[in-house]
Design a protein that fits this description.
alpha/beta, about 500 residues, homodimer, about 10% strand, eight-stranded parallel barrel, 21 helices
């Protein structure tokens, strides 16, 4: 009997986050839910920071309502979310009772599996949220952010797994957000966890596809004993996204492993999302192939386009090469944090500042906080000179305790502020929405009544439309970053009444 | 010391054949040759049936001259070609002395490695060309066309390898033209060959990427002892093409294997071809993702688009599903041939005929020949009733001998016919060009003097241009098949002098 390999489907969260700037509307997910629910997935990932943000920022959707709908539409399937530990779905540390409340409410609204990570792999930032998940009786998945540096060894990751299990995690996830996990370390880390922590410890592996090697890494992880792997249905896979679900199933045929998914439903899902994808053409990632330079620069694809856009805004689009060389240096100075939200943005932006204004002439507030320990501990020593600069610039002291210990209880204050907002419905869910996105939530509360917006467009309206997924290269400011797309105006020779005019036009919206 | 894994680079032949309808002009290859020559490849594949055909049909390039140029531009690298055994680069069997002559001339003009295959895996169709290669002292690579059927077992392929070695082949290639080779059979076949034929027998593995599993198959083949694998530089990889070269190099890091290629040169090559690719936008394949349905239908991607186009021409674009079900049936009736040029076209076209006109109401001449044994032997019994029909329709008898034994010496006749053509330069090379493409060569001889045509176009002329490879979905008649693209006209609202007009335009060429 082949061993069953479980699969987490990413199409409702990370896949469209990675490929179409998190813009997929609930309306476009609903028709897929019956097949998703019946295909045999271990879990369906459907909620996380960016989807929550996108719901209230772009789609006028209540993310809690989205969650409740998933619960109804996927009655047989574990719903899974990605939780940024003490940051929840926001970009700062929250005080412990807010963490507790968020986890409770997510569980109450239908969440089953909480994949909890911290960008710095600092366990102190994970402890509270993992404990909160355990109290709800839901599945707490402790997450290791995989990264590559002169300091990180497979042994370090195995040790982190041990500590996560000591915190009571139900499973371990190796999270490779930048497609850096090569086959051999994938094998070594999974093997190490199984040998050190016990064969019965569930190991999940999450990889992106960007570098073209990680399908092989999944195979080696499975050979080493991994229990569950993350994939996305093929029509929303590859590029900066993930490996295709159907290929995973086929890959295992004849091996001692088997993914028991319903192939006919997978093909239906593939076709369905192949039809959805072109509707979001203007948001599609411009990375369509493979990028192995990431192995040297350590810079994930999403971060790259962010930095390009920042440079262009400052009229310095030609200085990208310098920034690419600066990022690993800044990362080293910061003690080799993994590069994942929010550390990727913090390190990337500081690298841009260094190139534009001279190294550490100006520190961003976030980078200063990172250097001073306000995000937590890093594996490596942080550069003393830069720490000093950060202290001088901000007037703050370096800390070495758990950052959230500095926070005072804030629930009542947050609640009062939220309840004062027009359109707030007074629920804890609304308070949490406000707590996490205090700048975006107020407007959302006032527009919520108008109902969801679907930003997808009939592909027939676009110049080149076809059944196959259309992937035109987008202008760099048309992708991600929470910014709307800028349609490039095109100049045509137009013959009108026998006379030729040079006319610059944009497609009719 | 890790074992060195050799790499064959496909970018100059199969990559652009699979991704851009074989249209790349020599002019666009020349600037890459220095890096290709120095990167450390075991060989560079650069010649074959489709490139030869495309040279004279579309590019007004002398394919022999292209070969001589490669020889000069790649002085340190083995040049490799794909040879269709007794078919050479054409679509019929040639008489033995023509085979000898072709191989001699190819070797004389600079070819080093002859990868020789037969669409039916019939060794009798390979014997003569392999012997001819051996006489030139060049590398004869005996090729197994990988396919999946109820009859084919790993043992069959191992047995074929043994027989190819008995013919004096210098190495064995497992050729998976449809991306059907899964990891486990890849491992089993390579292992079987090494164990049965000896560890020192060189095994090369050629896979396409279409199904998303074959990067893993390469890994398993390497673990089983494969010596050399085929890849394409990433900017011309994936989809119906191949796995990316840079990813192969990275994938092996830390394993007991190593591909010693110069990464800096690979990145340069990647960037160079990323710039070339958008120039051929109108020829780009519309398959950009992964297609696992191939595992069930057995129909390779290129064949699929051919059949779609045939159906559309007959106003039956909606009957594709029926054809997809018919192909495996026709293939079974024909004794389970692998589906590769020309058997893929023969089986595919007959399936279209069956759906359009009733099963076997009309047989194509080629399908009748296939059923009657005029292409050689198949692994399975051919259906008796259909064989009878074929005999009745064509007035031919079934044969079971080597098809080429029926051919009379034809060199002098071919030579006289070629020499009578205006523009023929009287060389054996020209005679061979005529022999292989008797319908296309005459026109080519008359236009040759005008020099090569480059069908690539400045991507700035297209509406959406960017540094990243642009892959817009093309209308289905804009891809392959020797047909030009049809640019879809688009209607815009254009404001001109304050007045809005509905204007239909096409981009300026």
């Amino acid at each position: 009997m082949p061993k069953t390999i479980d699969v987490t489907e990413l199409v409702l969260r990370d896949a469209h986050q990675s490929l179409m700037a998190t813009r997929m509307a609930m309306e476009d997910m609903i028709p897929a839910c019956a097949d998703l629910d019946q295909a045999g997935y271990w879990s369906v990932e459907c909620w996380g920071g960016a989807t929550f943000d996108s719901c209230i920022r772009f789609l006028n959707e209540d993310p809690w309502e989205r969650l409740r709908q998933f619960r109804k539409l996927l009655p047989n399937t574990r719903l899974q979310m990605l939780l940024r530990g003490q940051n929840l779905l926001g970009y700062r540390h929250y005080e412990d009772t807010v963490v507790d409340r968020f986890v409770e409410k997510a569980a109450e609204n239908g969440m089953d599996v909480f994949r909890v990570f911290d960008a710095l792999n600092d366990l102190r930032n994970l402890r509270r949220s993992i404990a909160a998940v355990r109290r709800t009786g839901k599945h707490a998945q402790g997450t290791i952010c995989y990264t590559v540096s002169p300091l990180h060894t497979p042994g370090d990751f195995v040790e982190m797994a041990e500590k996560l299990l000591e915190l009571g995690c139900d499973s371990i996830c190796i999270k490779d957000m930048a497609a850096l996990l090569k086959p051999q370390p994938a094998y070594d880390i999974v093997k190490g966890i199984k040998e050190t922590c016990g064969q019965s410890v569930r190991v999940h592996v999450h990889v992106h596809a960007t570098t073209g090697v990680t399908m092989v890494s999944l195979m080696k992880a499975i050979e080493a004993g991994a229990d569950c792997v993350d994939t996305a249905i093929s029509s929303l896979s590859l590029g900066p996204g993930h490996n295709p679900t159907e290929s995973l199933v086929e890959m295992l045929e004849g091996t001692p492993f088997e993914a028991r998914l319903d192939k006919a439903r997978l093909i239906r899902l593939k076709k369905y999302f192949a039809g959805i994808r072109p509707r979001y053409q203007e948001f599609l990632s411009n990375i369509t192939g493979v990028e192995t330079e990431i192995f040297d620069s350590q810079i994930p694809g999403g971060m790259l386009s962010n930095m390009e856009s920042q440079l262009k805004q400052q009229g310095a689009g030609d200085r990208m090469e310098e920034v690419l060389l600066e990022v690993p240096r800044v990362r080293a100075d910061a003690g080799f944090p993994p590069l994942v939200t929010p550390s990727s943005q913090i390190v990337g932006t500081q690298a841009v500042f260094n190139v534009m204004m001279g190294r550490y002439k100006v520190l961003t507030g976030e980078f200063a906080d990172l250097m001073l320990g306000y995000y937590g501990e890093t594996i490596g020593q942080r550069d003393r000179n830069v720490v000093e600069l950060a202290a001088k610039q901000t007037g703050k002291h370096p800390i070495d305790g758990r950052p959230a210990d500095l926070l005072k209880p804030e629930w009542h204050e947050l609640r009062n502020a939220a309840l004062a907002l027009p359109g707030c419905n007074g629920s804890d869910e609304d308070v949490l929405t406000f707590a996490m996105f205090p700048k975006v939530a107020p407007k959302f509360f006032t527009t919520r009544e108008q109902g969801p917006k679907n930003l997808g467009k009939d592909p027939a309206a676009a110049p080149v439309a076809a059944a196959a997924p259309a992937k035109p290269a987008m202008p760099e400011n048309g992708n991600g970053n929470g910014k709307g797309p800028v349609r490039t105006p095109v100049t045509y020779d137009v013959k009108l009444d026998g006379k030729t005019h040079k006319v610059t036009v944009a497609p009719v919206q």
